[in-house]
Specification:
The protein is mostly helical and 93 residues long. It contains 5 helices and no strands. Helices cover 75% and strands 0% of the residues. It is elongated, with a radius of gyration of 17 Å.
Length: 93
């Protein structure tokens, strides 16, 4: 949301975001990391776009283009399901 309404990046937040992605590289699947990187790239690119007014934000909500985390959430859900299945199959041995 900050990137949609400002043209100056919140550098501490971006640094924190990239640090979290770095931790994901250790703990998460390549699909989750790739999806997180896509979100980060979109956020950085959004700072370079014109600021959005309330009507434009409402339109983005209505057409769901504002949901940057959808693909990331789905990648996390797939990874979680794989881990759950593995854990369940290991406990049934």
């Amino acid at each position: 949301m900050d990137a949609l309404q400002h043209d100056k990046a919140d550098m501490p937040v971006l640094i924190s975001l990239y640090a979290k992605i770095g931790r994901m590289r250790v703990l998460s699947s390549p699909d989750v990391v790739e999806s997180a990187q896509q979100v980060a790239h979109k956020i950085v690119d959004t700072y370079l776009e014109p600021e959005k007014n309330f009507i434009e934000l409402r339109e983005m909500v209505n057409d769901r283009s504002i949901d940057l985390l959808n693909d990331f959430s789905e990648a996390c859900r797939r990874e979680f399901e794989l881990l759950r299945v593995r854990l369940f199959s290991m406990s049934g041995r």
